[in-house]
Each structure stands twice: as structure tokens, then as C-alpha cells.
Amino acid sequence: TPIDYPISLDFDAENGTFEPCPQVTPRHLSDLKEMFSDQSTVAQILRENDPLIYEIRYYPFTTTKSDMALAVTRIFPGTIGNEFYMTKGHKHQREDQPEVYYCVRGEGFLLLDTLEGEFRAIPWRAGVITHIPPMWAHRVVNTGNDLLVFIGVFHLSAGHDYDIVARKGFAYRVLSRNGKPELIKQD
Ligand code: S6P
Ligand code: ZN
User: Fold this and answer.
1) Which pLDDT score, from 0 to 100, does residue 187 have?
2) What is the Cα–Cα distance from 80 to 142, expressed in whole angstroms?
């Protein structure tokens, strides 16, 4: 239901949580298993357990005339094989829908890819704000030993295309070599 009066949230930047929070979406390894390069390690882990890779907390600021939304994502530290924990990644369905990302805590990369030849890996740390133009697929990778927290502001009507990312993949992966992140080109 639309709410046409101001709403404020109580945000805990250390934890990456806020109150009130109407929706939390967990993403376990099984939810993004096809995104990781080392499929034999994925299968091996999934035989034993299904680790939580990240969590998304949403707040829809729906009014009678607008559909802005807030999402706070917390990516846990870790690797699958030698690939750092990351978001599934998606492109917005509507071609006129950008997004603003703000890294609140942690370190890693924001990967941006048109999936048509243009790619950027933005080194990310607390304090960096990035505008994601329409038609750029986006994925965040946690390369640190600690939680990575970021805020996304977008329109609910943007829609999410996960399939195109699953089909084409990002141009580079972020892999751990001796604990240090390296960008590796995909063929
Ligand atoms: C939504 C926005 C974020 C992501 C979230 C999780 O447009 O970009 O809220 O949904 O960071 O990533 P993903 O790829 O699983 O949706
Ligand atoms: Zn998005």
C-alpha cells in the first residue's frame, strides 16, 4: 500500500541492518551456484551444507506517484574455491533504470558490465558512492576478511534480469591468489 508521508529508518552501518525492516532475503550458495567458476567445489560444498553468502534488506518507499526503494546488502567474507563471495549480479529489465550504490563498510570490487563489450571494475571501500547507469549489469565482490555492506537506491519497477548474467557472465572474475584479489579475464 502506498504511503504518502515521510519515512525514516534507523540504520546500523556497522551491521548493515535497519529498523523497521519489512523484508530480508537470504542468498545461499544454492541460490547462485551457477555463478561461480569452480563447479566441482560448489557441488562438494553443497553435499555438506549450503552457506549463506549474503543477505538483502529491502524497504519499498512506495507512494501513490513513485516507487523508489532502498536495499542494504551484507556480503559475508569467504571464497568458493578461489573465487570471492559475491552477489548474483543482474541487469535492470527496463532500459531507463539506473541505480546509486554506496559502500558503507568493507572492501572489494563493484563490477559493471554492459555485457556488450564495456566493463569496469571499481575498487570499492567504505565511502565510495557509484552511479550505475541504465543497461549496466552490476555485481559486488567482497575481497576482505570482514563484512561488506552497501546501500542501493533504485526504482521497484526497474525489474531484475538475472538470466542474461547467467548466460553471458561478467568479463572478469575476482579470484584470490595467496589471499590477494586478482581480476581474471573470462573467455
Ligand atoms: C537492486 C540492487 C540490489 C541487489 C542486491 C543483491 O536493484 O541492485 O539491491 O538486488 O545487492 O544482488 P542480486 O544480484 O542478488 O540482486
Ligand atoms: Zn540493481
Assistant:
1) 80
2) 12
Report if residue 187 sits inside a domain: no
Give the CATH number of the domain where residue 44 resides: 2.60.120.10
- Ligand 1 atom nearest residue 154's Cα: 7
Distance CA 166, CA 88 (A): 9
Domain-located, residue 56: yes
Q: Give a yes or no: residue 110 inside a domain.
A: yes
Q: Flag residues of the chain having pLDDT under 50.
A: none
The tally of domains found in the chain comes to: 1
Q: Which three cell numbers stand for residue 8?
A: 525514516
In a domain, 5, yes or no: no
User: How does pLDDT run across 12-57, given as a tens digit for each residue?
Assistant: 999 999 999 999 999 999 999 999 999 999 999 999 999 999 999 9
- Answer for the pair 16, 104: CB distance below 8 angstroms, yes or no: yes
Which residue is associated with the grid cell 578461489?
A: 82
What three-state secondary structure class fits 43?
Answer: helix
Q: For ligand 1, pick from 87, 102, 154, 155 the residue to mutate: most ligand atoms within 8 Å of CB.
A: 87
Closest residue by Cα to residue 125 from 100, 141, 108: 108
For residue 56 and ligand 1, the question of a CB distance below 6 A is answered with yes
Count Cβ neighbours within 10 Å for each residue of 57-69 and write b for 16 or more, e otherwise.
bbbebeeeeeeeb
Domain of 104 in residue numbering reads as: 11-182
